[in-house]
């Protein structure tokens, strides 16, 4: 895996984890009943972005190590996902050596 591929994989994992964790334990202005004029009731009161980004970075790193390790080790390859046989020649060449 090239460095660029590793960075892109980490970025994708990081953003996926971020979007999953953003709504967790979120308290909105509407929940508190204190809506600031000019904002929506669904706006967060205290999003705690620094804490969330730290947690997201740690979780994303652990997931990245697992996924990148699996890719680098060769346990799962592109040929494993060739369900329609479109890469039959390439996969046969890899199997032969």
Describe the 3D structure.
With 97 residues, the protein is mainly α. It has one domain. Helix content is 59%, strand content 0%. Helix 1 packs across helix 3. The longest helix is centred in the middle third of the chain and has 25 residues. The two termini are 19 Å apart. The relative contact order is 0.13. The mean pLDDT is 90.
Short description:
The chain has 97 residues and is mainly alpha-helical. It is built from 4 helices and no strands. It has one domain (3-96).
β content, as a range? Answer: under 5%
Give me the strand/helix succession: HHHH
Tally of distinct domains: 1
Structural category: mainly alpha
Count of alpha and pi helical runs: 4
Shape: elongated
Distance between the termini: 19 Å
**Over all CA atoms, what is the radius of gyration?**
21 Å
Round the mean pLDDT to the nearest integer and report it.
Answer: 90
* Number of extended strands: 0
Helix content: 55-70%
Largest sheet: none
Q: What are the low-pLDDT stretches, counting only 5+ consecutive residues below 50?
A: none
Chain-wise SSE layout:
Elements: H1 3-21, H2 29-32, H3 49-73, H4 88-96
What are the key terms here?
single chain; 97 residues; mainly alpha; 4 helices; 59% helix; elongated
């Amino acid at each position: 895996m090239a460095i660029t591929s590793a960075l892109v994989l980490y970025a994708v994992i990081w953003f996926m984890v971020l979007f999953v964790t953003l709504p967790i334990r979120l308290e909105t202005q509407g929940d508190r009943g204190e809506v600031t004029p000019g904002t929506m009731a669904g706006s967060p009161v205290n999003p705690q972005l620094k804490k969330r980004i730290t947690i997201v970075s740690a979780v994303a790193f652990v997931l990245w190590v697992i996924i990148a390790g699996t890719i680098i080790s060769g346990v799962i390859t592109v040929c494993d996902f060739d369900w329609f046989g479109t890469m039959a020649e390439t996969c046969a060449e890899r199997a032969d050596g």
